[in-house]
Amino acid sequence: MPLYDYKCKEHGLFHELASMENAPLPCACPQCGKLSARVIMIPPEVLAMAPGRKKAMEKNEKAIHQPIISSVDSREDDAQRRAHAAAKKGCGCNDHAAHPDRSSLRQKAIYLPDGSKVFPSQRPWMISH
C-alpha cells in the first residue's frame, strides 16, 4: 500500500498507508481524530526550476501517451529541424573551411615495447582499451 501525506489543520502534516482506491478520501488525524485532506507534496527543486525547462517537462509529460506517427512529412520536418539545429550550433570550432579533409587528423595507435598501446592525442584524460 502506498504512503500518502495528509494535513490536519491543528496538528500539521502526517503520513498514513492507504489503498489506491481510498487515496482521494480524507484520513483521520492520529492525534485528534478529525478528518484531514490529502496533500500532494512538491519537491522544492521543481518549484525553483527554470520556467523554460518546467514548460518542456510538462509538455513531455502530456505527450508521453501519444503515439509516434511516422510519415514522409514528419520525417522531412524532423530532418529540416535537425539540419537547422546543426547549422546553427555546429561543433563550435569554426574552422571547417581550413580542414576539409579531417581523416588526416585521426590518431593512430602506438604500440609500446611491453605490448600496451596508446593513442597520442590532445585529450590526455581519455583512456584507451
Description:
A hairpin with a 6-residue loop joins strand 3 and strand 4. The protein is 27% helix and 18% strand. It starts with a strand and ends in an 11-residue tail after the last strand. It has a domain of 44 residues. Strands 2-1-4-3 form a 4-stranded antiparallel sheet, with no helix packed on it. Strands 5-6 form a two-stranded antiparallel sheet. It has 3 helices and 6 strands, in the order ββββαααββ. The mean pLDDT is 76. With 129 residues, it is α+β, with helices and mostly antiparallel strands. The radius of gyration is 29 Å and the shape is elongated.
- Category by helix and strand content: alpha+beta
The end-to-end distance, rounded to whole angstroms, is: 48 Å
Shape: elongated
Largest sheet: 4 strands, antiparallel
Q: List how many beta strands DSSP finds.
A: 6
Low-confidence stretches: none
Estimate the strand proportion: 15-25%
Mean pLDDT, all residues: 76
Strand order of the largest sheet: 2-1-4-3
Radius of gyration: 29 Å
Along the chain, the helix and strand elements come as EEEEHHHEE
What portion of residues is helical? 25-40%
Figure out the total of helices: 3
